[in-house]
Every structure is written in structure tokens, then in C-alpha cells.
Amino acid sequence: MQSRIGRRKYSPIDEALKYIRSRKPRIIVISFVNDPYQPREITERKTRKVLEILLQSPIKHRIMILTKNPKLALDRDFELMNDNVWLGSTVTALCKIPDEPYAPSNAERIEALLEAHQDGIHTWMSIEPWIPNITKPTEIINYTHEFIDLYIVGRLNYAKQLGYNHVTDDFYRKTLPDVISLLKKLKKPFIIKKELKKVMSNV
User: Fold this and answer.
1) Does residue 19 carry a pLDDT above 50?
2) Where are the beta strands (DSSP E) in 49-200?
3) Phi and psi (nearest 5°) for 117?
4) Where are the domains of the chain?
5) 47, 45, 19, 44: which is closest to 31 by C-alpha?
6) Domain 12-201 carries which CATH code?
7) CB 87 within 8 A of CB 120
8) What are the residues whose beta carbons fall under 8 Å from the beta carbon of 127, sequence distance 6 or more?
9) So what's the pLDDT on residue 99?
């Protein structure tokens, strides 16, 4: 067993300070691991502190905020969202789904991204997890493309463990090409996440 003596607890503040010393611009995502605008952010303001530190850097990093609560981000930190700060949200459908009972609805997230776009803020959307018969990426893109600057598309990982036994690689092989074709037609920048891209490479 590895000893915990001497191991430092992770600190987003310490990590942000490292980027101050960076010699080249980076793309910094806050965050694919957890939500930076949970309700506790209202009182703890840790995400705001991270943003304030990153924006002090002499190197202009691109800061990509990813949250299921973009409205809170706008309400709390609007004045920090300059041209280098992009506001994004995960969207799984055009309506609220039962898998996310406590998060703001997809409609609320989309409305907040529209508001951000109208205020001159760069916006992005992560369409994932892609749940068959629930998540319809082409519908989401057609509905939002006029105010979203970048799309990221991912699959549903650990489908069987989550009870989605019908999700197969074949499903994504058949449907992903239509999503890519639409994004190219609309001339929207996009990224296909590696787990989903791998499905296509295994054909």
C-alpha cells in the first residue's frame, strides 16, 4: 500500500497558479471531471478564484468552462468572461431527462448558452452521453447551431453498467456519419471524442 504521508491534496488553485508560469498558450477545460458551478459555488466561489488567477496570466490561455448550470456561471461571473473565456454545457436532449433529476434542464442550459452568445461570449456544447432513443445529436445541432461556436460529441460509456444493455458499437457506426455530415454542412467546428472515434476506426 502506498503511504499517504507527504502526498498533497489536489488544489485547483495551485493548478491554476501553474498556468501563470506557462510559456505558451494552453486550452484549459474547467472541467470534464466535475461541475465547476455546483450550488456550493454560490458560497465557496472556488471556480471564480481559479478564473481570476488564470486571467492574470501574461499568456492568453483559452479557458473552456463546462457546466450543467451555465446560467449560474453567467449570473455570478459574467464580468470575467472576456474573449478568452468560452462558456459551455453538456446537453443530452432538447428536454429534461429522468437521468438528471437535480440538474438544470437541458432547455435551461440551452437558453443560457443563447443568452451568453447574445452577450458576445464564445459558446460550446458537449453532446454526451449519447443515449440511444433519448439523445438525438442532429436535432440538438439543428436547434442550436446559430449560437454555438464549437461542438464536442461523445458516446455513452459504461452502458451495460448503467442498465443500457441495448447500446452497441453498431448503433454509433450507423448514426455518427449523419452527425458529422451535418456539422460539416453547417461549417461548425467539432471534436469527436476518442471513445466514439475508436468505434469508427474498428470497422
Assistant:
1) yes
2) 62-66, 85-91, 122-127, 150-153, 190-192
3) -60, -45
4) 12-201
5) 47
6) 3.80.30.30
7) no
8) 90, 91, 92, 135, 137, 140, 141, 151, 152, 153, 154
9) 77
3-class secondary-structure state, position 48: helix
Question: What pLDDT digit, counting tens, does each position of 48-62 carry?
Answer: 999 999 999 888 999
**Strand ranges for 97-189 from DSSP E:** 122-127, 150-153
What cell was used for 60?
492568453
Closest CA to 108 of 80, 73, 81: 73
Q: Which three cell numbers stand for residue 155?
A: 458516446
- At 202 the pLDDT is 64
d(CA 47, CA 32): 14
Say what the pTM is. 0.89
